[in-house]
């Protein structure tokens, strides 16, 4: 918003972002919309000018504008979204946090105990697909009483992945896995709680059918204590329109 204000609009700019994320969560690609009204006689910015100008003012920030599109007045970055895709990066094979590659620090989660039972996690993830009351899988906050806990999970996949520069430390037998979730929207901290529950399955603390039981309980207090995944492994991958 500050960067856009440097473009000297004649009306203060209001910035609307598609998705808010917890502190420590990353975004590979987020979306936002804004209206820029220029002084009389000045032409509207084209897409390329807007990208270059905003990035010039964003130089010191860990954020870059990748694309810009002209949209209709009825478009809204948050409410026009058809779905949002999140990925969560897990690192397996670490028996101690000091074994996490230094370039991956704060970009993945290495759960205690080394390797996880991935087939059990994949079985458990199937219970999350479809439309459910996700009350057990949301953290409580001030908005809880005003939001429906019903959400539809369109995708819940667990796939092997590559780490940054991983070809240089293959001998260490570290494995990266990605959990991908897609839905129109998610309740507060839903993805981190789903990941935490699936990791508990992978560690043998829960059985796959326990995911179904947690859904049926519909109570945030029933969620296993301290099972929520940390924010550092979570990435908003894309917002689809």
From TrEMBL:
Residues 124-241 form the Pseudouridine synthase I TruA alpha/beta domain. GO terms for molecular function: RNA binding; tRNA pseudouridine(38-40) synthase activity. It holds the Pfam family PseudoU_synth_1. GO terms for biological process: tRNA pseudouridine synthesis. It comes from the Eukaryota. InterPro entries: PsdUridine_synth_cat_dom_sf, PsdUridine_synth_TruA, PsdUridine_synth_TruA_a/b_dom, PsdUridine_synth_TruA_C, TruA/RsuA/RluB/E/F_N. Keywords: Isomerase, tRNA processing. It is an enzyme of class 5 (isomerase). Its EC number is 5.4.99.12. SUPFAM superfamilies: Pseudouridine synthase (SSF55120). Substrate binds at residue 86. The active site is at residue 22. It catalyses: uridine(38/39/40) in tRNA = pseudouridine(38/39/40) in tRNA. Belongs to the tRNA pseudouridine synthase TruA family. This is tRNA pseudouridine synthase. The lineage of its organism: Eukaryota, Metazoa, Chordata, Craniata, Vertebrata.
């Amino acid at each position: 918003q500050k960067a856009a204000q440097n473009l000297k609009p004649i009306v203060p700019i209001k910035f609307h972002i598609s998705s808010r994320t917890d502190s420590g969560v990353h975004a590979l690609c987020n979306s936002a919309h804004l209206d820029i009204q220029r002084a009389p006689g000045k032409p509207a910015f084209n897409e390329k000018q807007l990208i270059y100008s905003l990035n010039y003012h964003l130089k010191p920030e860990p954020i870059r504008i990748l694309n810009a599109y002209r949209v209709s007045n009825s478009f809204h970055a948050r409410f026009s979204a058809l779905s949002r895709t999140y990925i969560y990066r897990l690192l397996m094979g670490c028996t101690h946090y000091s074994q996490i590659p230094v370039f991956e620090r704060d970009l993945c989660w290495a759960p205690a105990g080394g390797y996880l039972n991935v087939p059990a996690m994949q079985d458990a993830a199937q219970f999350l697909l479809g439309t459910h009351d996700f009350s057990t899988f949301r953290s409580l906050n001030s908005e809880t009483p005003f939001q429906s806990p019903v959400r539809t999970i369109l995708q819940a996949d667990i796939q092997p992945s590559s780490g940054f520069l991983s070809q240089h430390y293959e001998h260490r037998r570290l494995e990266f896995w990605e959990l991908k979730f897609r839905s129109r929207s998610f309740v507060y901290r839903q993805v981190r709680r789903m990941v935490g529950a699936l990791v508990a399955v992978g560690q043998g603390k829960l059985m796959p059918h326990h995911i179904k039981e947690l859904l049926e309980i519909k109570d945030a207090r029933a969620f296993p204590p301290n099972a929520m995944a940390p924010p550092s492994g979570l990435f908003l991958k894309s917002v689809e329109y």
